[in-house]
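Workshop exercise sheet. Pairs work together: one partner reads the sequence aloud, the other fills in the structure field after running the prediction. Swap roles for the next sheet.
Pair: D.N. / O.F.
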Amino acid sequence: MSNFNLEENFLSKLAEAYTTFSISPIQDLIADDFSYSSLWVWGELKSKESYLDYLKRKLESMKKANVNNRFLMMYCKRSDIPVLLLSQKTEAGDRGVFVVTKVQNGKVKELNLTSSEFYSLKPKNEKEYSEFMKKYN
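Structure field:
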């Protein structure tokens, strides 16, 4: 599987994890020496175990709060790198995007959650994008 396909598949599975409130869709796709960073989380999580523990607690909290997570796969205009756009807006009014920043030996090694403002993005499907933005704006 190419890095592009692996990244796109992982991001799809990450969306599934967030919408089903379960870490199981991504567990086997993450490298043991996985690293997660977020613009909105202090510090970096530097292992598969610490990230999955963090995510499990986060998803449990979201489920209890009845959070309705929605995502749209987008692509960087220049490089076609897949990113996962979140429907929720940040306090600054932008949206977050998950970006796989490193793949190694068929597993995701690094994931970053950052602002969509740092990227020039394009959708795969314009109609789907328009509907997503209209619904979650």
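Discussion prompt: The mean pLDDT is 93. What would you look at next?
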